Amino acid sequence: MIRYAMPFSFARRLVTGGALLAACVAAPLAVGQDRSAPDPAIGKRLYYEHGCYGCHGFNGETGARDLVGTNSPIVADEQTFITFLRLRADQAPLLPSTRMPNYPVESLSDEDARHIYAYISSFELDAPEIDDVPVFKQILESAARPYTP
Questions:
Q1: 26-57 burial string, b = 16+ CB within 10 Å, else e?
Q2: Over the stretch 74-92, which tens digit does the pLDDT of each residue have?
C-alpha cells in the first residue's frame, strides 16, 4: 500500500477540525452485501485479545480511558467508532502517539470492530457513589486535614 504524506498542519486541521464527524456518514451497503449482527460475546473475546482492557479496564469504567458514562462521540455509534479506529491508523505516520494503538483494517477488520463495539455498548455504569466507599471517604477526609509532621 502506498501512503501519501500531507503537510502536518493540514493533518492537524483534518483531525481537530471535525473531519472525524464529517467522515462518519455511514456508507450504504452494496447490493447483495449482507452484514451479520454484531455479537457482544465475540467482541468480548476480541476486546481481551487486542488488549483493550489494558487502558479501558475490564468493564469500561476503569483504566486510563473510561468508555462508560463519558458521552464520548467516539463511542456514540458503530460507524463513528470504526472511523475513529481507521483515522488513527491513517494518521499514525503523521501524528504519532503512544495513547492508543493504531488499528488499520489489516489488523482489525470492520466486522471485528463491529463486534468490539457491540461488546463495549453493553457496558453499564455501576461505579459506587463516594459515600458508599468507606476507605475512599476516609482518604478524602484525611487529605482535607492540615498536615502536621
A1: eeeeeeeeeeeebebebbbebbeebebeeebb
A2: 888 999 999 888 886 666 5
pTM (2 d.p.): 0.61
Range 97-120 burial, b when 16+ CB lie within 10 A, else e = eeeebbbeeeebeeebbbbbbbbb
**Residues above pLDDT 70, as percent of the chain:** 68
Only one residue has cell 461505579, namely 127
Measured CA to CA in angstroms, residue 92 lies from 7, 80, 89, 98, 116 at distances of 13, 18, 5, 10, 21
| Burial of 95 (C-beta count, 10 Å sphere; 0-12/13-18/19+) | middle
Cell numbers found for residue 146: 492540615
pLDDT tens-digit map of 97-116: 657 777 888 889 999 999 99
